[in-house]
Amino acid sequence: MSVPLSAAQRVAEAADRAWHGAGAGTDEGVCVGVVAALALLGRADPEGPDPRDKILALEDEEVARVLGEVWCLFTIGRPELAMRCGPFGGWLNAERPDRHLLAGAGAVARATVKAGLFDLTLDLEVSRQVDLLGVTYTTMRSHSGRKARGEFYTPPGVAEAMARMSLAGSAAGQSICDPTAGTGGLLRAAAQAIRDEGKDPHDYVWYGCDIAPVAVAGLAVNAHIWGLGPQVVIGCADSLAEPDWEVRALREQREAIEAQGSRMKMAQTLAAMKALLAGEST
């Protein structure tokens, strides 16, 4: 199955127009984060309401609430990846989110759904065929801005050819690393090449790093969407200046997992105390 890049480009251009049309500012992380959250928003009940109708019916504040719920669930399920997603969801932690960001997020959510976002994300096989977040991120940035930061993304066809050549005959347990991963286009191609050989990406160890926090946030979400598995190490660093970036990345991810475990234990303790107090009051 091959997903036309033009389908992702339509969604990305819709996001770009909606964001700037709403006068939401220059923070591309928030805009790409809306697309990322919707990409994580699956259809829990195949017989239930269509998520397209749900999103299109929401007001801006309600869209923000849905986004917050998605990031909360992602943090619970994948704390080692969610820790990299601050550029996507951090703005929602404000006591009163910026009204311009609220308007921009709502506009992007509705525009991208109308442009076919869920056509690319609700089907598991389709979602693995395209780097929607990478296309959205690069669309949000001017060519000169990408050049100034040295951001050049490998075309999907080239990435797939490279993956097939380098991973032919690969074995479970092998490490696959891209120290300048962007949003992960090469890793996506590698995972697809592994599946094409009848193997499971979960049996491999994945390493990805980039210097741009927004790109790293996209990489973290993509690692989950593309089903790379539980052995994923993602760093945010200049891999040329910090060649052992994965050491710090591993430590930061372990700390994120431990912190989430502590929060869960505290929540369970508070719930138990609340139940106990409720029982005593009856």
Question: What is the element layout, followed by pairings?
Answer:
Layout: H1 5-21, H2 28-40, H3 51-56, H4 60-77, H5 79-82, H6 86-89, H7 99-114, H8 117-121, H9 124-127, H10 132-140, H11 143-148, H12 156-167, E1 175-178, H13 185-196, E2 205-210, H14 213-225, E3 232-236, H15 245-281
Parallel strand pairs: 1-2, 2-3
Task: From the structure above, extract its key features.
single chain; 282 residues; mainly alpha; three-stranded parallel sheet; 15 helices; 3 strands; 62% helix; 5% strand
The number of helical elements comes to: 15
Estimate percent helicity: 55-70%
**Beta-strand content bin:** 5-15%
Largest sheet: 3 strands, parallel
Say what oligomer this is. Answer: single chain
Distance between the termini: 60 Å
Strand order of the largest sheet: 1-2-3
